[in-house]
Design goal:
Blueprint (H helix, E strand, L loop, with lengths): L7 H16 L2 H21 L7 H8 L6 H34 L11 H16 L4 H23 L8 H23 L3 H12 L7 H20 L1 H7 L3 H6 L4 H23 L5 H13 L3 H26 L7 H20 L5
Helix pairs in contact: 1-13, 2-4, 2-14, 3-4, 4-9, 4-12, 4-13, 4-14, 5-6, 5-7, 5-12, 6-7, 6-12, 9-12, 10-12, 10-14, 13-14, 14-15
């Protein structure tokens, strides 16, 4: 290391004044985030193979679909709603997982939760013939929960317990293994391969309000569990012993928070497919604006996740026009460099 290179601790201390200045303006950032979300939602219904104007958007919102432009807007409305909901769920799920594990690399994709949900759905389709979206949701949630327990169990083995490095390695290995199992299940089923492979990429195309209605109760329950866990996550951030000293039931607090994250990730995977990196990137960006207080971090992560997935969906439609890139590909392209930056900056330390 060069003599003039600052250590990780020194760099963190140098950032504290900036973080304090930014976190002191939380209401302003919240207002700007809501404005950005509204602007992205309008852009999402306006941009696509056919660009439509504001008069057509207004007519479609009033229920008139007697032209090609208004019909296009009507088809994009559920897609926009799903992108916002899925992004909020994934951003919130990632923030919870990072808080529960105190792992800066925690994310539904990196820890294998999304791929566990994906494997469960694929097995359900190929072996048990499930067809209804409600069945997909229950199956995905069970798969996500089983994957989370498995990864945490593997990462807890050996000296030091579930360290961030061990959890990240266990999650990466589990994701690769589950991905291989998905391929093994799909390959003999030529009748299902095309649809499952398309779903595995992760996207919000083809969304309907009926489909959103099926997953909405699970997302609402996940959001509720997440928000009531905010104070508990603040206590867990102090360390298990200190949290227990303040009267917090550590195991129960972790279980409730993790249940919320699993519901959010599983339900989103069921309807969108596995979308990666949103839960990793968003909480790190939001901590710069809100600090580490989960009472602010969790709602900001939901808002920023919705904005990110909407922006990724719009970008996917623009760069491949008149075709489009699925949002899962765009988030992978955006999230990969950020993941490398986090690894180099954090050196896989605890939060």
């Amino acid at each position: 290391m060069r003599a003039n290179a600052p250590s990780g601790a020194a760099a963190t201390r140098a950032e504290l004044p900036l973080r304090r200045a930014l976190s002191g303006r939380r209401p302003l950032w919240l207002a700007l985030g809501l404005l950005l979300l509204g602007a992205l939602a309008l852009a999402s219904v306006a941009v696509g193979t056919r660009t439509v104007g504001w008069p057509d958007i207004a007519l479609a919102l009033r229920g008139q679909v007697d032209s090609i432009a208004t019909a296009a807007v009507s088809a994009r409305l559920p897609r926009t709603a799903l992108a916002a909901l899925a992004g909020a769920a994934l951003g919130l799920s990632g923030a919870i997982m990072q808080g529960v594990t105190r792992n800066p690399l925690a994310d539904p994709g990196i820890l294998g939760v999304n791929m566990g949900a994906s494997l469960a759905v694929v097995i359900g389709i190929a072996w048990f013939g499930i067809t209804a979206l409600e069945q997909y949701v229950w199956t995905a949630i069970l798969g996500a929960g089983a994957a989370a327990v498995f990864v945490y169990g593997i990462g807890s083995l050996g000296r030091g317990g579930a360290t961030p490095l061990k959890l990240a390695l266990a999650g990466a290995a589990t994701s690769v293994a589950f991905s291989s199992l998905v391929a093994a299940v799909v390959l003999p089923r030529a009748d299902l391969a095309g649809g499952i492979r398309s779903w595995q990429i992760g996207g919000v195309g083809g969304a309907t309000f009926e489909g959103i209605g099926h997953v909405a109760p699970f997302l609402a329950l996940g959001f509720g569990l997440a928000m009531i866990s905010a104070r508990k996550l603040n206590a867990l951030a102090l360390g298990d012993e200190l949290a227990a000293g303040f009267g917090e039931r550590v195991a129960r607090a972790r279980a409730w928070a993790a249940a919320g994250a699993i519901l959010l990730a599983g339900a989103t995977t069921a309807i969108c497919g596995p979308i990666g990196f949103v839960g990793l990137v968003v909480p790190h960006a939001c901590r710069l604006l809100t600090g580490t207080d989960h009472r602010w971090l969790l709602p900001f992560s939901a808002l920023a996740g919705a904005c990110l997935l909407l922006a990724a969906d719009i970008l996917g439609r623009l760069i491949a026009r008149p075709a489009e890139l699925d949002v899962g590909i765009v988030t992978a392209l955006l999230g990969g460099p950020v993941f490398i930056w986090i690894v180099r900056r954090q050196r896989i330390r605890e939060l």
